[in-house]
Write a sequence for this structure.
């Protein structure tokens, strides 16, 4: 028994495997070329993040790394208050 070009081993044809490489590369390139808006994340609701309009134990939106002045947040739906807080709080780096 000899190996023929394109013969299958373990159910996978080497030739068909090599033919699929450009298709896989194309799929990766296509995925990276799709506008970012298609992958835009939806923001977390006030309710889900347990947002409140008051600070919590000295933590508040204005000192959070997610805060986008004057009343936005990278993670939670706007509007938020600079004096608010939610359980997704992340302290700004010192
Ligand atoms: S505490 Fe919550 S709502 Fe406020 S900025 Fe940080 S992540 Fe956004």
């Amino acid at each position: 028994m000899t190996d023929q070009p394109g013969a299958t081993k373990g159910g996978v044809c080497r030739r068909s495997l090599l033919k699929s490489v450009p298709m896989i590369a194309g799929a990766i390139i296509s995925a990276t070329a799709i506008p970012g808006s298609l992958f835009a994340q939806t923001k977390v609701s006030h309710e889900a993040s347990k947002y409140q309009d008051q600070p919590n134990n000295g933590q508040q939106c204005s000192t959070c790394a997610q805060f986008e002045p004057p009343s936005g947040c990278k993670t939670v739906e706007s509007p938020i208050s600079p004096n608010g807080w939610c359980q997704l709080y992340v302290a700004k780096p010192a």
